[in-house]
Sequence to fold (128 residues):
Amino acid sequence: MRKAGYTVEAAFIMPILLGILFLLMYVMFFVHDSAVLQGNFSYALCRTAEEEKAQENVQKRLSKGLWSAEITKVQFRRSFGKVSGEVQGRMKLKIPVMSYFIKDVQKIRCTGEYYYLQPEQYKKGSDS
Fold:
């Protein structure tokens, strides 16, 4: 009779432990992809400021190294002396039971600005 007691207890504990394990793995993937996307975005922002042609294949460059996220929106804007941009992505992992608790979609959003004009490039005052 004691063997059956352990089986029943394990039947209650194992789904809880597996749920916690899957949640930790999902959070690990989310944090990894957030950090990689931020790094790739910063690099792409600097390249866009330095070169006009750097915006070609930017989505492919931003997706490099992502484990479980996909890029949904890429936008760069150039103005005088500044490049600003925004990248949005979403997690593409579909875990059936976990989607009930985490609402199925987690979004990643990175925004930033890069100033590419240096003050020493301009003459101040009436230097001739």
Notes: Residues 2-118 form one domain. The chain is about 45% helix and 25% strand. Residues 19 and 25 are 10 Å apart (CA to CA). The beta strands are 69-79, 82-91, 107-115.
